[in-house]
Please model this.
Amino acid sequence: MKTTYKLLLITIMMAIGLLASFCFANEGGKDRWDIAKEQATITITVEYNEAKPTDTLSLLLENVIYRDNRYNLGVYAKNGINKRFRFVIPVNDNCGYWKIIKPNKGTIADNGGKGSVVALTKSFFWEAGDDIFLSFSNKETFAGVFSTYSFSGKGAEKYVVQGKIYALQTDPVEKPIFDSLFNYSDPGRNVINVKLKALEGFKGEMSALSYDVIKADIIAQSLCNEISGPIKSYFDEYLKTAPDSTKQRFLIAYRRQLAGKDFQGISVEGLSESGRYFKYLHDRLRQESYFKFGTIDMEWIFSALLKEGNTKARDRAVVYLFGSNKRSENVELLYSKSKELINDKYCLLALNRLMGIGAGSKFESFTLTDTSGKLIDLSMFKGKVIFIDFWSEGCGACINFFENALSKVEQEFESNNDIVFISVSIDRKKQKWLEGVSSGKFTSKDVVNLYTSGMGADHPIFLKNRIVATPHTILVDKWGSIKYNNTQNLYEKEGLIKAIKELL
Model:
């Protein structure tokens, strides 16, 4: 009997010991239960050959819907040791895109001082668990920063092929050759084929998802370039004033040849995670709207996108629609429909940020500097209708808007003291801003021209109103409430005149 008790006691003690060793054996200060639940990571060790002792590099996990670095998913900064920078980043998603940036300290690629950071690498597709060593060098020119890459480590193959694709020297897309039925030979196909051939050589060395995403990116980017470049140019040159019947035949051929057959064989997941496929969906419909109506009809594009079967790509394209076009006067209704439609948390976050301050919201007052150095508080214009135009030096669309619409509207109301026209530049460098004002291409000297004192897009007036690109326009009523925020009618002479008169 005593022997039985002893054996039972020994068995219990051994079980407790085994349980304790399983639960509490430490590895780096974490028990095994914690390790089992530990968040996935990506690890990127960077050797930056041009690094200076004072350099700080940052790795951005990109929000692919935005073109603005302020709204990326995360920024992780590291100071280098012996030109090496190590990033161990916890991730909640299975995949995404990252790039390396550093503070902009007046590099020759500064482009007028508009950006607070400069990108040192292109965007690279990552997967959870990647453990990469990247050695790169770059050369700065007035056209930007050009980098060469060397990758090794776990998951390196997809980075190697992306680096090779970025480095490929491809000829500019030539004009398509259209026949009488508007079928066209596609010179851009050569660009796609060269890049796809490079990718095919790595197919067996990377995951199926990586292969599909990179393939989708290659095709989508090339088609987007073709749609907005040579195809649009052909239409503008030969068909813009053609009879409606001719335009209809062109549209039929356009839809047929861009119906998505190039993406056949790519998985739904690959298309969903691609950072460019959803832009192709948007751009294809955006250009069709232009061919069909002679303008960009946001509501028509929105309705057309709802027919897209790939839910995640559709949701991304819908959000991109809000950030890449002048808004419909019914934008609030589209916004409500989109919030009901979209389930993806990143898309909802991006949508809410892009919508910014809607109609009916109070326009918050800000203080900026005018051309004489005087501080101007926007609240001093209370009781007047205020039209604010946000622009940047070198922005072609800003020049076009001022020349064809805004300058004429200003003349229409030049003797009316109840309307104030305000011009705000996104440029960081004061001299660039002053040169832009003096040129008469972006604004007139007769309006209130304001400067952000070097803050550029980081000034609260841009951040509060979620302004991510120029031109951007806001119309405020006499009581300080926003009537229209970057809607299409504000960019047309007659539409802007009508909107102002309604508030006077």
